[in-house]
Write a structure and sequence with these properties.
This protein is an all-alpha fold and 423 residues long. The chain contains 17 helices and no strands. It has helices at 2-7, 10-29, 32-43, 47-75, 77-94, 101-117, 120-131, 136-165, 167-188, 218-229, 233-263, 268-293, 298-319, 326-339, 343-354, 359-388, 392-409. The longest helix has 31 residues, at 233-263. The chain crosses the membrane at residues 12-30, 50-72, 79-97, 103-127, 139-158, 170-189, 235-258, 270-291, 303-323, 329-350, 362-385, 391-412.
């Protein structure tokens, strides 16, 4: 057994620790949508008021990402991730003292949003880019699946705890999950292969050169990168498509699927179980997409993913009824497979087009647009629900925008090197 452990490449150890840390962060990511209805019932706040906290959470989740990527380059992955987990734990713990919507905005919105945004997919991109040359797409898919695995593990538990013991107990469990991961990251997370005298998995010893480290101001590096890439068509195509990706996943389904199902008479635990089923197939879809990204052109994969996601959203209003039936389960399976599938090819395109030195930060800004889209959808869907009495228009609009994203990605040129042509 000891010999087997010694034979494991340290890159896989880094990926495993990253996977566990992302699962811990996902415990809180899965919580707010479950707590919307109980908080609404207890305090009498409107769905739109509570949606502000969800919207801010998603917005900060995205806007933090590019700065987190730059901070990881400057101060190290371990410090940033431990700080992020602490912020998640404190935000979830303090949320139990909420007496008005603005407290939720601070705890759920800013503290949890910044903490989860400092990890998530920019963390996955940094781990994959530093530790892997071969199997990079598969690793990104696996780390992307960690968030789904967190939902799979904790969403049904949190839902049952909420029903049996109240929403405050569920929030405390989420806080504990995040804090529990801090010592694991401290003891087992290494910064990069060269720190332990190793090379990335699959690297050619005769030709591999480690990407230069960023030693300047992280904020200046992140903002400077944005100023350069925002002038390029390739970044705008990536950002526009990923904006729609976030709108149609985190904001619309992640934030409002359970409340929408509740409106149709479906029990909250049942709806949470369906969302967990989405998480089950999210894991499979993410792994499969990472594997496919190593073999099939990324923009072709994105075209397929966005097209089928649009179809799924158009059919959702007609199948969301009071009980679980085959078509509802089919939606959960299909949407789950497609949920995080867009991430591996998008990360691959960011690195391929903008280079290994800037790839993670460029993806961080692309991810920021993803979460801005989610934030817009979280707030807009809540307002539509109040104004029209249901979520039908929100689902149809999301489906139409997914078709637009499928068209946009076909304009991306993976061989473009827009920054190389700049004087």
């Amino acid at each position: 057994m000891i010999r087997r452990l010694k034979s494991v490449h340290p890159s896989w150890v880094a990926a495993a620790v990253g996977f566990l840390a992302l699962i811990g962060g996902a415990g809180m990511r899965s919580t707010p949508s479950v707590l919307v209805v109980p908080i609404e019932d207890e305090f009498g706040w409107s769905r739109a008021d509570i949606s502000v906290a969800l919207s801010v959470n998603i917005l900060m989740y995205g806007l933090t990402a590019p700065f987190a990527a730059a901070l990881m380059e400057r101060f190290g992955v371990r410090r940033v991730v431990m700080g992020a987990l602490a912020s998640i734990g404190l935000g979830a713990g303090l949320a139990i003292y909420a007496t008005s919507p603005w407290v939720l905005v601070i705890c759920w919105g800013f503290m949890v949003g910044c903490g989860t945004g400092s990890m998530a997919f920019v963390f996955a991109a940094t781990i994959a880019n530093r530790w892997f040359v071969a199997k990079r797409g598969m690793v990104i898919g696996g780390l992307g699946a960690a968030s789904a695995a967190g939902n799979l593990l904790f969403l049904p538990i949190i839902s049952r705890v909420t029903v049996a013991h109240g929403w405050r107990s569920a929030s405390l469990i989420a806080a504990g999950l995040a804090l529990l991961m801090i010592p694991i990251v401290f003891f087992f997370m290494k910064e990069r292969p060269s720190a332990i005298g190793a090379m990335p998995y699959g690297a050619d010893q005769s030709s591999w050169v480690e990407a230069p480290r960023t030693l300047g101001n992280p904020a200046k590096f992140a903002v400077g990168t944005l100023r350069e890439v925002i002038r390029t068509k390739q970044f705008l195509y990536l950002a526009a498509s990923f904006f729609i990706c976030g709108l149609s996943t985190n904001g619309l389904i992640g934030g409002h699927f359970i409340p929408a199902a509740h409106d149709h008479g479906m029990g909250e635990t049942t709806a949470a179980g369906l969302l967990a089923l989405v998480g089950v197939f999210d894991v499979l879809g993410s792994f499969a997409s990472g594997w496919l990204t190593d073999r099939i052109p990324a923009k072709k994969l994105l075209f397929v993913y966005y097209t089928f996601r649009g179809l799924s959203l158009l059919f959702l209003p007609s199948i969301l009824f009071a009980s679980v039936h085959p078509s509802t389960v089919v939606f959960a399976i299909f949407y789950g497979i497609d949920w995080v599938a867009t991430v591996p090819p998008t990360i691959w395109l960011c690195r391929e087009i903008f280079g290994p030195e800037r790839g993670a930060v460029v993806f961080g800004w692309t991810f920021a647009t993803h979460m801005i889209g989610g934030s817009v959808a979280a707030l807009a869907a809540g307002i539509m629900r109040v104004h029209f009495g249901d979520y039908v228009l929100a689902f149809y609009a999301g489906g139409a925008l997914c078709f637009a994203a499928a068209i946009i990605v076909m304009f991306i040129d993976p061989k473009a090197r827009p920054l190389e042509s700049k004087p």
